[in-house]
Amino acid sequence: MAPALRRITAIVPLHLEVLAGRNGLDRPVRWVAVSELEDPTPFLEGGELVLTTGMRLSAGDAEPYVSRLVARGVAGLGFGVGLSHDAVPPAFAEAAEAAGLPLVEVPRDTPFIAIGKAVSDLLAGEQYEEISRAFAAQGRLTRAALQREGPVAVVDRLAREIGGWALLLDPAGALRHAAGTTGRRGVAGDWARETARSLEPEIARLRSAPSLASLALSTPDEHVVVQPLGRRGFFAVGSPRPFSPIAYTIVNAAGSLLTLALEQGREQRSAAAQVRSAVLRLLLAGEVRAAVETLAALGMRLPEEPVTVLACDTPDPEALTEALTGAVPGAASGPRGAFTGVGTFTAPWEGLLVVLAPDAGADELVALAAQHGRVGVSAPGVEIARSEGRVDGRMESREPSAAGAAGSVTRSASRPNLDTGPDRGYEHDLDRAVDQARRALVSASPVARFSELAGRGLLSLLDPAAAASFAAAILAPLREYGSRADLVESLRAYLASNGHWDAAAQRLGVHRHTLRYRMKRVSELLGRDLDDPAVRAELWIAVCL
What we know:
Low-confidence stretches: 327-342, 389-428
Strand content: 5-15%
Distance between the termini: 66 Å
Largest sheet: 5 strands, mixed
């Protein structure tokens, strides 16, 4: 920051005397300009301390001369005496006082170059202090990046460094973490999410123009900078004051640290996701004790029972995992909570992200997950521990009927009565809940609950093993077809839209003619008439399983 004129006039060896405009002494002086022209303004940029001996100026020139300097935005006027004028003409003092322009008398013994050197030294000192502050801030940001919370700690530190707020966003622009939002209008979390939504146009611009390193926005009350973090997301910072070059340096340093932290953590997050996927397989196999012991060895645990299962279709499972594991219902928000993962359990599963959410906070977590993609929700009340030991009993009583599975789907003779009897809790087993969530996902836009699906009663009667074999056999020609187009998903959208071309095409994001071509290919590969209601019903069951 440039030194104030008050600081320059206080330098004793210069012997400067303020004659007018004392209220303007706090103006920053960005340079010293010496000129004997009647109108030096074409050669000024604003913020200068103009020095002159008044060689070509008379009392009659005072008002127009001062007016031109004020219009140009100079910081002050230094009038040298002892050469052209023995004293500063009173007309100049009066004009300067009327215009609010600081007027300083420069004695004969003070050379103008001495004032220039003094200002240059002050500017250099200010720049050194700013650079030192920037280095210190970068050090604090680096130490924050080394903490366990990593990116969250960097965002918290950045908000304090700039004296404003900071938001960490995922690749879709959804809020991951917010800092410095205390005192904002309304609830801090709501304000942060609303601010993130307001930045969606800027996020879209950065996403569509990779050459853009950042975007800066300004309003009368706030200044905002938005930057991408490689392919891992975005961050935004806001301050009530304009960002100085040093502030930009601090913001850029934070951006580099955030990008590095997010990229370096990818392998670790991938390994953790594989472990959670293995734990989910144990749970679905009824090996609850082994799953719990595996998580305990990693410092994690399953959520409180009963739970609701979410099947999430999202372009960024990592971002959704971070968002969900940090959203512990009823818990105080904080950087550490974003990484503990005790409120929910997430795991990749067959191209989806499966979430076990405590019933008490399931609605909140469903709403959060919907910001990242489509969500299918199971019936609530799932008791994870009750799944243990039940799988073996069910497998022993099932009839192996892989042959003929493509022709018919039968209910297992061992399936317990879902309405009466001691085994009624079976319908809330974890494997059944995962199936429910996946079936609900088919109709999600962006959220669908299994309990609200019209076909719940029929689908619940199907034997999962036989049904899976049936679905695999009937859809095999589509899965084996060598095309980049996903014919199964296209068929699913077509059937879910009840054969309406425009609605199905819009759901898939393709032209209706493209969808017509795909459905023609599906009909040819399957050897079935898609206009036949019976065929549609059979295919709908297959794609839902």
